[in-house]
Amino acid sequence: MVLVLLRVWIRKRAWLWIIVALGVVFGALPDLIGAYGNIIEHDHWTLYRSAHFGEIKEVLQYVPMYRLHLYLDSIMHGPGQRWWKWDERLWLEIVLWIVNVIVTWWLIRSWRKQ
């Protein structure tokens, strides 16, 4: 999504893929940190909580894609807001994925025309 704003300044495909890769990594980072803690360290969700609500969040929340992840989590999780239940938030998860696919398709198509 951030690429839509930066598209005007990005002229080389190499820069596009570098920015996409950084966006993907930083966007997934809260869950990647949590997965590392839970699977490798067996810390019973300690790093996950820190990445979403604690000290790690306090440092990394200023990275736009990290912050977007935290914001979307605040909408998707909580009482009556389970992302895996259709009548609660699964429909929203599907809509967000469709928007991501459309924006990605548009960006790739527009760069191929250049």
Description:
By secondary structure, the chain is mainly α. It is built from six helices and no strands. The chain has two domains: 13-76, no CATH class; 81-114, no CATH class. The protein is globular, with a radius of gyration of 16 Å. The model has no long low-confidence stretch (mean pLDDT 84).
Structure summarized in a few sentences:
With 114 residues, the protein is an all-alpha fold.
Structural topology:
Elements: H1 2-6, H2 13-40, H3 46-53, H4 55-60, H5 64-76, H6 86-113
Helix pairs in contact: 2-3, 2-5
Secondary structural class:
mainly alpha
Mean pLDDT: 84
Q: Give the N-to-C terminal Cα separation.
A: 20 Å
Gyration radius, rounded: 16 Å
Oligomeric state of this protein: single chain
What percent of residues adopt helix (DSSP H or I)? over 70%
* Helix-strand string: HHHHHH
* Uncertain segments: none
| Shape descriptor | globular
State the major sheet.
none
Structure summary, number of beta strands? 0
Which features characterize this protein?
114 residues, mainly alpha, 77% helix
